[in-house]
Amino acid sequence: MYDIGPMAGDYANCKSCGWTKDEVWRREQIIGSHKVVIVFTKAKRLIVSFPDQNANFYALITSPAEMTDMLLMVLTYSP
Predict the structure, then answer these.
(1) Which of 18-22, 37-41, 44-48, 52-56 has the lowest mean pLDDT?
(2) Fewer CB in 10 Å around end: N or C, the chain?
(3) CA distances for 24 relative to 2, 39, 51, 59, 79, angstroms
(4) CA-to-CA distance for 47 and 51, rounded, in angstroms?
C-alpha cells in the first residue's frame, strides 16, 4: 500500500499516528539525494517513508522474501 502527497505526512516519524508502535528496528539512508526511513514493527509492518516527499509505502511482511521484494520495489521510487 502507499500514501503519497501533501496530506500523507511522514509515517515513520509520526509518533501519535501509531504506524511505528512497537518498533523493532529503524534505518535511515540517503538514496540519490532523498532521505529514506525504513521501520519494522513487532506486528511485522514494514514502513518505508520518503519524508521530504511525503511518500509512504507499507505492508505486512510474513517472510524474508516478502521483505526483500518490497524493498526492491519501493526503493525504485523516484520522486
Answers:
(1) 18-22
(2) N
(3) 21, 8, 20, 15, 27
(4) 12
Q: What is the pLDDT of residues 4-20, one digit of tens each?
A: 999 998 999 888 888 89
- DSSP string for residues in 14-48: -GGGTTTTTEEEEEEEEETTEEEEEEEETT-EEEE
Type of residue found at 54: N
Q: Angle 35-39-41 (CA atoms, 0-180°, nearest 5)?
A: 170
Residue owning grid cell 518490497: 70
- Domain borders along the chain are 2-74
CB neighbours (10 Å) of residue 46? 18
